[in-house]
Amino acid sequence: MQENRVEIGVFIQQAAAVAKLPGIVLATGRWAGTIRRKAQRRKLLVMNTLFPTEPTVPQGFFYTSGFITESEEDQLLKAIAETELHTFNFHGYEAKRKVASFGYDWSFESRELSKGRDIPPAFLFLVSRVAEFLKVKEEEVGELLVTEYPEGAVINWHRDAPPFDIIAGISLLADCSFRFRPYEKARQSRKSLISIPVSRRSLYVMKGESRSNWEHSISPVKHTRYSITLRTLRK
After folding, report:
1. 61-233 is classed CATH 2.40.50.140
2. How far is CA 180 from CA 177, 206, 209, in A?
3. Could you list the pLDDT tens digit for every one of the 235 residues in the chain?
4. Which of 124, 215, 204 is nearest to 161 (CA)?
5. How many angstroms separate the CA atoms of 172 and 109, rounded?
6. Domain segments of the chain: what residues?
7. List of residues 6+ apart from 59 with CB closer than 8 A
8. What pTM value is reported for the model?
9. Phi-psi group of 42: left, alpha or beta (phi > 0 → left; psi -120 to 50 → alpha; rest → beta)
10. How do beta strands 93-107 and 112-115 pair?
11. Nearest to 80 by CA among 229, 212, 221, 215
């Protein structure tokens, strides 16, 4: 991703240089329009050639940094510290991470959705803000999941449980590397792997193709990280 950012920076500089061709500002009279049109065509040619035409992230994936403030992050971390977390168990395997689920809870053993504990008041401001961002009603947010990732913890490749629709995640305390690959094994390759740096206090959203046609994972975290995942229910 660092290389991509550097390359994009160079592309922008080159495009900007084309936009500032000598003589454009000073040109007057009958030649002014011709020079502007040629410069604009050259600018568009550079932009179309240098920037990739295919999306660099799966369709339906959105990411925004600084979704919450440092003060709000501290508020959420305090609420998590007062929340009882338990080791995540998947088909008898105990993962390294700990979780606490509120709202509707999905059981991997029975593959059923059941109503669980109400979302604690300390998290409701976040539910409201995420719902506004997603343009859904607050009551459509069916689950709030708190996860603790100790150093070295991962999430292996998966898609979220079928009853859930839109997935939104907020990172706390540390950054992580979020990865995508096609869900169909025939389409999986090293070139199809997409890695996205996700910073603390940011928000990512998965819906549409990024939710259904891709699976995701999180690389081993370098420092203790917390996340709050909000999921809407399918209608």
Report:
1. no
2. 10, 11, 11
3. 444 443 333 333 334 443 443 332 333 444 444 444 544 544 443 344 444 444 489 999 999 999 999 999 999 999 999 999 988 776 556 678 899 999 988 766 666 777 889 999 999 999 999 999 999 999 999 999 999 999 999 888 998 888 899 999 999 999 999 999 999 999 999 899 999 999 999 999 999 999 999 999 999 999 999 999 999 998 8
4. 215
5. 29
6. 2-50, 61-233
7. 208, 209, 210
8. 0.73
9. alpha
10. antiparallel
11. 229
Quickly list H helices, the chain: 2-19, 30-50, 70-81, 124-134, 209-212
H/E element, 207? none
Alpha-carbon distances of 85 from 121, 124, 128, 153, 219, rounded to whole Å: 17, 19, 23, 15, 22
